[in-house]
Design brief:
By secondary structure, the protein is mainly alpha-helical. The protein contains three helices and two strands; from the N terminus they run E-H-E-H-H. About 30% of the residues lie in helices and about 5% in strands. A two-stranded antiparallel ribbon has the order 1-2.
């Protein structure tokens, strides 16, 4: 039985076999915060090692899921444009 633990892998970054991938849709500062505090922070144990369920990749999936990069803050739809079109075109199905 093995326990998983979040550990610093900075030294492995100098290994030429280590692969690093840029994830443009992930907020890097948020990932750093995940490592600094919270249930999956550096040094915490994260349960029993179960390949594919609770392993290094599982931690990464959780962190990425918690840290999407928000491109914009979508607001409610602008219904006024639709109402204007309906007035102009009738049912909104195009010109008559």
């Amino acid at each position: 039985m093995f326990l998983t633990k979040v550990s610093d892998e900075t030294a492995d970054m100098s290994n030429p076999q280590t692969k690093c991938e840029d994830l443009p849709d992930v907020d890097e500062k948020c990932i750093d915060q995940q490592l600094e505090s919270g249930p999956d922070s550096m040094g915490t144990t994260t349960g029993l090692w179960v390949p594919g369920i609770n392993d290094c990749n599982a931690w990464v999936r959780r962190a990425i899921g918690r840290c999407p990069k928000v491109k914009c803050n979508p607001g409610p739809p602008d219904w006024t444009q639709n109402l204007e079109n309906r007035k102009r075109w009738g049912s909104g199905m195009g010109p008559k």
